[in-house]
Predict the structure.
Amino acid sequence: MQMPAPDTTLLEGRAQIVAGLEAALPADAVISDPVETRAYECDALTAYRCPPLAVVLPRTTEEVAAVLRLCHAARVPVIPRGAGTSLAGGALPTADSVVLSVARMSEVLEIDTDNRVIRVQAGRTNLSVSQAVEAHGFFYAPDPSSQLACAIGGNIAMNSGGAHCLKYGVTTNNLLGVTMVTMDGTVLELGGAHLDAAGYDLLGVVCGAEGMLGVVTEAVLRILPQPEGARPVLMGFDSSRVAGACVAAIIEAGVLPVAIEFMDRPCIRACEDFAHAGYPDCEALLIVEVEGSEAEIDHQLGLIKQVARGFDPVELRESSSQAESALIWKGRKAAFGAMGQIGDYICLDGTIPVSALPDVLERISEGAAQYGLRVANVFHAGDGNMHPLILFDANAPGELEKAEALGADILKLCVEVGGCLTGEHGVGVEKRELMSVQFNEADLEAQMRVKDVFDPRWLLNPAKVFPLSASRERRHAG
Ligand SMILES: Cc1cc2nc3c(=O)[nH]c(=O)nc-3n(C[C@H](O)[C@H](O)[C@H](O)COP(=O)(O)OP(=O)(O)OC[C@H]3O[C@@H](n4cnc5c(N)ncnc54)[C@H](O)[C@@H]3O)c2cc1C
């Protein structure tokens, strides 16, 4: 068979862009070899892949601005990227795009313990922010389970949360300011190193905007004094429904644990095999952690255990040492990886009112049975932030589509009970077509107008968050 001749206009355009990027950046900061760009073809939503035209790895705000100016002039889309751990396809490239990775922008720029802030470059990993202030007696509160790898820029774009966000809030509650470059290369300073800022709260708009308004290059984060101590308690139950009801009762009782995490039997087993954390053999497990002095911990755990006893737990065990606590958290934080050893799965991320947990858990099992699929659950129960993991066989034709259809039903259920499509993973490409379930046309239009202001040509991460037809219309009009 005769191969079609390559489109030389396209090749020339591509070569020009790469030459422009190479002229603007240090030699080692541009990747255009198609074999090497494959490493950036997807994020943690691996079902979708597309190698980009090129990848750039700038080190400074000025280099980021230079890349954006060039791509803006040439009308080339740019996909910001941190560590590529997005579970929603937020960093998925298109074939005509340049991936702008902030991975090399990992410096700590300032630690100011008097004012309890740290300023870092956007590529700094989440965990290493806490590590940078540990010796001063501080920590950075939002703790996604991916914290060893994920970057602060990605956390800001997705407004990420974690197990300990029940008490401390998610990224937006711990972010004070950013330096951000818009698609035309303009450098903006939003917020500052203080609690409130004059003018419109554009920082609030940017946090959670999924890299569609600008590329964050630096961030000012609030750091908190390390608590005197912390202790988790394991609560085992013989049904998910009862465990869900216990979560709602703990919250209702007015005690504020720092974390309430939920796992059902498949997750308990997978995590136990991985971490040997001493999890009990039960249908549903809660890990509830409180912080403070020994006396405060004893008092809070006393109240929490009293509530739990009303639900006939099959296990109610406090951690007895720091080593045991570390193992308990090691197991929970490894849940997604441990489940990956069992098979392929889609990880959902919907949020519901805590009081709806028992019913929603039951309706998820019923839905799974109707589709002939298995669902495992591991999530931040105190926040009502659910992560049903839909297990499927990626090699079996039609299974992915079936799993995605069940996923859409579950997310619609979250909206139906008064919750929302995402708690922390974002919309990305994964949930963009479901946005019209959550928002009416006027709501969506208002959000898209914000994008129009920051990026009138719709070149920055253009096909994410909004239904694809709406994004395309906007981009063609831009
Ligand atoms: C095993 C595992 C566990 C996880 N656990 C959690 C969890 O507990 N909580 C949670 O919230 N999430 C969790 N996630 C999801 C993911 O880690 C978060 O969404 C994280 O914030 C993404 O960061 P990243 O640096 O990997 O960003 P990427 O995946 O590279 O990008 C994510 C989004 O951010 C944008 N972006 C990246 N950097 C910038 C920047 N500098 N400026 C502007 N936009 C940018 C990208 O365009 C994209 O839209 C988990 C993921 C995995 C794989």
